[in-house]
Description:
A: six-stranded mixed sheet; four-stranded antiparallel sheet; 10 helices; 10 strands; B: ABC transporter involved in vitamin B12 uptake, BtuC; globular
Amino acid sequence: xxxxxxxxxxxxxGGLKAVDAVSFAVEKGEILSIIGPNGAGKSSIxxxxxRIYTPxxxxxxxxxxxxxxxxxxxxxxxxxxxxxxxxELFENATVLNNLLVGRHRHSTTQLWQELLFLPSVRANEKxxxxxxxxVIEFLDLEPYRDTLISGLPYGVRKVIEIARAxxxxxxxxxxxxxxxxxxxxxxxxxxxWIRDMKSELGITVVMVEHDMTLVSRVxxxxxxxxxxxxxxxxxxxxxxGHPDVVAAYxxx
Amino acid sequence: xxxxxxxxxxxxxxLFPHSGYVWSYGTLFVLLxxxxxxxxxxxxxxxxxxxxxxxxxxxxxxxxxxxxxASLGHAAFLAIGAYTAAYLQQFNVPFPVYFLAAGLLxxxxxxxVGFPALRLQGIYLVIATISFALIVEEILARWESVTHGNExxxxxxxxxxxxxxxxxSPTFYFMCLALLVLTIVGSLNLxxxxxxxxxxxxxxxxxxxxxxGINVSLYKVKSFAISAAITGFAGVMFAHKLxxxxxxxxxxxxxxxxxxxxxxGGTFSLHGxxxxxxxxxxxxxxxxxxxxxxxGIIGGLxxxxxxxxxxxxxxxxxxxxxxxxxxLKGAIYGVIIVLFVLFEPLGxxxxxxxxxxxxxxxxxxxxxxxxxxxxxxxxxxxx
Lengths: 252, 383
């Protein structure tokens, strides 16, 4: 069985079919890209998986478990982390606190223990801090530990959002347009990091992306969407050359 | 300027980041410890009110400042704490028991209020909490078998281990101070652990909080419960300090005073609660001064400036009429809130930080350091 599976998921807003009976599977350890013109339903699929939206129909499976009925935080607890297209960081907190929130799914301490800050809480905090430091090192975020998010430039915020997702030690990470708003060098870095996520951290990656260079450099497989439907699926070169995809982007 | 070289993860967790903190807080502690033996009983009494207001301020900061859930119902929580104490005291329940019971009951009621609040945001939540406060006020006035209605209730002095602790004794002051210090330490502990970070996450982006595995509803209810429980504890001390409680003491104006405490002090740090409490407690003597002395001073001033004695009397009378006008307090509160929101959104503690930074960086302080930025990249789509 596949690692992650979407079976005929749909999302309808009244008469508008944002996602229309889309099925796909993600294998463990692969990088899957979802491409498509604006409004094709790419981000909607992410929002369905992370349960910001509730699917109108269809089912989602992760590690052979039906996750269609789980609440948003339950999805995250299973090890599915995500980033957002329009950066959703905790603006008035430091970078460190943002990343530590990413550790939330691993926190085991009880409220009363935290009120007293018992040694067990202290030990836990240090362990979290150590894990966060590894992510900081992985993504070269050392200069920003104690800076407030509101004072940081866009490119850095983008990386911090990925860092926050990585701090939760996810099994599956959903990257929503990781390169949007980044310059050429930053996009280069991003492509290395995405490949390292797969090879070094063993994380399965699903990403929505518009930058075809990045897509073809990192992806194992590509899905092309238009009007909420799957147009093509397969190796990056095949999908980009697929007549329907070309027609969707350029007009027939 | 001091540079901190962090060599251990402990450096990020410590409550006192460096020795300077230990010295300044140590000095403050010593001063507070000798205060009741040095200062006049009036000032000590004011200190007690500062402690109580600051405790409620910290509670409100947890809910409003850190979890982002506004509340205009904290006077009701205070009332529930106070009335629980007064009610249980009638049956000779020992102080520690009814103290804990008051906090616990208020916490549970806070959690119950938190549930409907899950679906409300911003101004609607404020309206809901106001309604809650009005309901409680009405219940206190009508449930005469328990609360004695508008007659109010007498609260006897605290009996603890066979000793009586009068409301103006140093011991009572130390109890209030201890409650405040414990509240602050507990809150700081909370804020440096997962729960506190979850609160901050919910304040800044509920969507992101959810997708990081935070059960937003649970933590909102937790925040309400903690905030209410602390306010309940403060309510017990409040009841003992006043020695008499009646429903008209816990009106909307008191809730607004609590909001002013954190708004003026600064909503981003616990320091704000204390500074705001000092401010709000000191405003009463100021108003009394305004009432008693201002007319005479202005009248005298007018007389020396050459106005006829009749005219001076007239001026004095009109100033006196203004100073004792009904609702002057509320009007002044309103003006203060507006001025602070417009010109000092970070509050008194923010101002203090700015002054401190000015001297730390002297002469390199940049005027735009704390300038408010407009944030353009903020999505409201995924609410």
